[in-house]
Amino acid sequence: MGEWRVQVSVRVSQATRAELEKFASGEKRTLANFGAALLEWSFEQWKVVGSTERLMKYKISPRVRGGKQEG
After folding, report:
1. What is the pTM of this model?
2. Of 1, 28, 45, 46, which residue is least crowded by CB atoms under 10 Å?
3. What Å distances lie between residue 56 and 14, 22, 32, 43, 51, CA to CA?
4. Inter-helix orientation angle 31-49/14-26, to 10°
């Protein structure tokens, strides 16, 4: 028997939604599945650092290929 799942709604800009859909498609996931993975991962990170302010201080640098930034 699988884990019970519940629905969570969030409001984001249309541009953010479009970008999320693009990345979800690239991962061959639905937007809901991609969003759930991001939310679960980020919440685990938040529990380690203990606050949104501390979590937001940590940035991951963009990958660099052939001397040029992706983007």
Report:
1. 0.70
2. 1
3. 23, 23, 23, 12, 9
4. 100
